[in-house]
Structure formats: C-alpha cells, structure tokens
Specification:
elongated; 16 helices; single chain; mainly alpha; 449 residues
C-alpha cells in the first residue's frame, strides 16, 4: 500500500467526483463482459470434453460468441480493469489497507487469463482451417505423401493439447482473478477491516469474499444464459446454419442457466448485504437492492416464459434487462463503497489542499515573488473580490479577461482608465514579472469562487 501511495497523488474534491464516475463507467464495461467470458469458458471447456458433434460445436460457438472479438478482451477487459485499479488506488490513498495491492495482482491474473482464453479460442479457428484443408486434399495426401499425413496428425495432436491446456489455464486463472477481485472490492468497502487484514490469505479465507463470489457467480450465470440466447438467436440475425436439434439444445442450456441464476442470485445478494458493514449501509443502498430485486423479478418472468415455450421472441429484451440488472447492482456496490470511504476521502481532500498550498509556496519561493504580500500592500486598499471599494470588485472585472494572463498583466503594469464609473488606477510601480504573477494569482483566485 505504501508503494501505491508513492505512485498516486491526493485528489481534490472535483477530481474525486471524476474518479467515481470513471470507476462506475469502467465497471459497467468490465463486469458484464467478465461475466460472459467466465460463463462462456466454463461452458466451452465442459462441453469440449464431451464426445459428439453437437457438444463440440457448442463449445466452439459459445466461446467465440461470448468473447465477442479478440479486441474486446482488451477494450472491455484489460483497459477497464486498469482504469478501475487506478480509481481505487486514488480513492483509497493513505488508507491502511492491502486492497489496492491485491487488486493489482487480480488485474495481472485477469490479463493472463484473457491471453490463455484468446489462445483457446484461436485453436478452434485453426481446427476449422485444418479440417477444410483435409477435406480439399485429404485423399491426395494419404495416397501420395505419408510424411505429410504424419505431420498433419502431429499438428492436430499438438493443437488438441494446446486447446485443452489453454482452456484449463484460462478458466482457472479467470476464476482466481474474479475471486480476488470480489474479495478486494469487499475489503475496500469495509474500513473497520483495513488495519486487521494484512495478507492475501485473510481475503481468500473470508466468508464475505466467499458469499460475494457466489453472488458474482450467480450473476454470471444469468448474464451468460441471456448472452447465449441473444448472440445465438438475435444479434445480426443469429447463427444461420443451426438445425432444429442444435437450436433446441442451445435454448435448453441457455434458458436453464439463466433461470437457475435468477433463483440463486437474490439469495446470495441478501447474504452479501448482511455482511456489508454499517459504514457502507444507507437507505440508498437498500433502495438499490429493492430495485435490483424488481428488475430481477421482471426479467425472471421473461426467462421462465422463454424456457417454457422455447421461444426466442424476448431474447433481446431479456439481454437488455440483464444489462440493466448489472448496472443497478454496480450502482448499489459503488454507493456502498462511497459511503464506506467518506472519512478517507475527506482526509484525501485535506491532503490535496495542503499539497496545493505547499506547491504554491514553492512556486513563490522559486520566482522570488510573494503575490499575497503585494496584494496586501498595494491592492487591498482599493479593491475587494466581492464588493466595490474605490475600484471595482475583482469578481466583476477579472472574468472579462477570459483567463488571458498577459493582457491583465499589461493593465496591472501600466493601468489605463477604462470604466468612467471609477477613478483611474494609479501605477503601482510593479516590475513586469510581479505584474504577471499578480495577474496569474487573481485569475486563479476568481476562477475558484
């Protein structure tokens, strides 16, 4: 944690607000995608081990559809994870917690998992290319070139091994990363644990982490089931060459997965809420949970209707409702986190103000100009910021320069009568660099009001 405190700087109040929005947007991209990939890799590796064309085709289709594209792993996986890590590091600045350090480890594991899953997905494409090649030239190869046939078989064997190992590594690395992710975000929302949780094992062997992980797993089942139905039957017209048997099989798997996810998710959500510390709780968090339940109830009815009738009429609506469900759940979590870190955020803003004053002091020392001293000696007798004295209030005249330091500095250095309602400003005998420093100081002072 000391390492990250050295990397980040204390954020001002405005920057804190920006960080919160950045964190929410990052999670809105990251969580649904990780849910899909998590469910997709487990489904794919499970059915890939089963014998039969139906299972092997589904294993290929589900990982290709739910990972979307190789670029999506970077844009929706790695980049939002890094953005979320940066936001957490800033918002937990000066806090005595290992949450950010463990979260950084989770991001590294996420990256490794995405690489293996991309490799796993790519083996299916190579298998299709190899299969097409064998169909086109298989007879000629077997008759005329035994060595080439052996090379093809060796390559197929190697490809099969890469497929199995990449799928296994990607699956368990992703599971590990998700477990650490939910554990560290739970710790981040529990200030009373910051001083007592000093190593990663305390995060791993925590009931709060376990139930948050079960909640995430249930949500992943809902998202995965809805995503399978959406990408197989709706997106860009769905998969074109599905026969009735394969279509029925996909509907059954996706429908049951989404349905059982909606059954277990509210249970794990309530248990996770019970583990939420008092610092993180508020009426707003409770209202968010109620809203999650309402969205889940409506979505569950559509899912049940889809499973019962085997219809794909509502798959797009279901997918959109699930995305809404994830968004509301993220809103609940982020409100709880915001409640939990209120005290720490106040300390950060105080530290930021101290840093700003220290920086200004260094700037004045380096330039040799004490602007406030000049103001008190030469300006305060005739000017105030918010009311008329001899001259006009700064709050009215400084904004007219639109932040043009040079133009204001020229007036201060060689004042001219501008407004007939006020007497001309006498020349104060300032040097040009003093006038420039005073102009800069006045513009910054007024802009902050």
């Amino acid at each position: 944690m000391n390492f990250f405190d050295q990397l980040v700087i204390p954020a001002s109040e405005n920057h804190i607000m920006v960080l919160r929005y950045m964190l929410i947007i990052s999670l809105l991209l990251f969580v649904p995608y990780v849910c899909m990939v998590f469910g997709g890799i487990f489904l794919s590796t499970f059915f890939n081990r089963k014998a039969g064309n139906l299972y092997s085709r589904f294993a290929k289709d589900v990982i290709e559809k739910l990972t979307i594209t190789p670029k999506a792993e970077f844009a929706l996986g790695i980049v939002p994870a890094l953005s979320a890590l940066f936001a957490y590091a800033q918002l937990l600045y000066m806090s005595e917690t290992i949450a950010v350090s463990v979260l950084s480890l989770a991001v590294v594991i996420f990256t490794a998992a995405f690489i293996f899953i991309y490799r796993y997905r790519n083996t299916f494409k190579l298998e299709r290319v190899l299969s097409a090649y064998r169909k086109l030239s298989g007879d000629k190869v077997s008759e005329n070139n035994d060595s080439e046939l052996r090379e093809i078989k060796d390559f197929e064997s190697s490809l099969s091994e890469i497929n199995r190992s990449s799928g296994t590594y990607g699956k368990y690395l992703l599971l590990t990363a998700i477990y650490l992710f939910v554990g560290t975000t739970a710790l981040a929302s529990s200030p009373h644990k910051w001083l007592h949780v000093g190593n990663i094992l305390q995060i791993i062997f925590s009931w709060q982490t376990l139930f948050n992980f079960l909640c995430f797993t249930s949500l992943s089942a809902i998202v995965t089931g809805a995503a399978v139905m959406f990408y197989f039957f709706s997106w860009n017209g769905g998969i074109k060459d599905m026969d009735d048997e394969y279509s029925a099989f996909v509907k059954s798997i996706a429908g049951k997965l989404a349905f059982w996810g909606t059954v277990f998710f509210p249970v794990t959500l309530i248990v996770s809420y019970l583990y939420l510390p008092s610092e993180a709780q508020s009426p707003g968090v409770f209202y968010f949970i109620v809203l999650v339940m309402l969205v889940l109830l409506v979505t569950g009815n559509f899912i049940y209707s889809t499973v019962k009738t085997s219809s794909t009429q509502f798959v797009t609506l279901i997918f959109m409702m699930i995305i809404l469900l994830v968004a509301v759940n993220i809103g609940k979590d982020q409100l709880a986190f915001s409640n939990a870190v209120k005290v720490n955020v106040k300390e950060i803003t105080v530290k930021a103000e101290e840093k700003e004053k220290e920086l200004k002091g260094k700037l004045m020392q380096s330039s040799g100009i004490n602007v406030e001293e000049i103001f008190n000696q030469k300006c305060v007798a005739c000017h105030k910021f918010d009311q008329r004295v001899v001259g006009p209030p700064y709050d009215q005249v400084v904004p007219k320069y639109n932040g043009d330091v040079q133009k204001l500095a020229e007036f201060i250095y060689n004042p001219q009568k501008i407004d007939p309602a006020y007497p001309p400003m006498p020349n104060q005998g300032l040097k040009k660099k003093e006038a420039s420093a005073m102009a800069q100081w006045l513009i910054e002072k007024v802009s902050k009001k």
